[in-house]
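Obj: model holo form, ligand = magnesium ion.
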Amino acid sequence: MARKICFVNYKGGVGKTSLIVNTAACLAQKGFRVLLFDFDTQSNASIWLMRLDRWNKLNIKGEGSVYSIFNPGTAKLKDCLIKDVVKSKTGDPLLPGLDLVPTTFNLVDLESDYEGDPKTPPYLLFHQQLAEFESDYDYIVFDCPPNILRASQCGVFTSNEILVPANPDALSLIGFTLLVEKLMLFHRRSASFRVSGMGTPAQIKGIIFNSIKANVDIEVPKMRMQLRLNQFRTQKRVSPKAKIYQAQIRDATVVRRAVTLGLPVNMVVKGSDDSVVSDYNKLAGEIVRHEDTTTF
Ligand SMILES: Nc1ncnc2c1ncn2[C@@H]1O[C@H](COP(=O)(O)OP(=O)(O)O)[C@@H](O)[C@H]1O
Ligand SMILES: [Mg+2]
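Output (holo structure tokens):
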């Protein structure tokens, strides 16, 4: 059964997209079958992995991205899959096992213009369509915008786990706190749509610190985050196993450069023991080990 994991925080710019793209690439390199969903209208993960020219064509066409399934009758989710998305300039697969369902700018219309059956909210439709092929994967990961509006709800509803990317600062802590509130609200509102076999609603399993600058002590912001996490654990608002991940991602110029190259970082830098690639690999390993079925 695929592990379905949402990467979300109510704070933008913390590194959600960079974390998900690079961690998914490490998981694929370890031999797992990985599917990445881009649920952010900005389409950063899609542009990164498809490269601008390929993505531009899709965006102009307005079909074949995740939004297509919400336009009744135009597409099935399975038809939007891009297999082995990371390709060389000549089209050869560079990272077999990493697939993408891309997004395009029209996903923003989902927030205002969903005309489907009110008895089938977008997240239920998405969940039903994903169920048709999710067993093809070991990991399905969802890159979300910094909110739990309709697009993110698709990932949150179907997921079992939530990971919260954060920077060591006060705004990330505020974003995390707001996320917990909005998540509880969404779980309550969507409870009647859950069907048997779905398991418990997605729980927050961890905080991942990203963009850590060399020689900067992050103990204080880390301690503040830990205290908030403990408080939420006591209140049973996050998983009893929720933790701050040991693996943290250093600030490295190559992460920004990789976007321009249209490659995940592990395809740009061949992993040395002391590089940002090793950080992403450690994180991928920790995610793999942090599997537990503990419920509220
Ligand atoms: N570890 C890192 N080192 C350096 N820059 C990073 C790192 N992680 C993210 N960035 C940069 O920070 C910015 C925001 O990251 P992004 O992944 O787009 O965040 P989000 O998806 O949360 O908005 C981008 O310019 C990205 O290249
Ligand atoms: Mg993003």
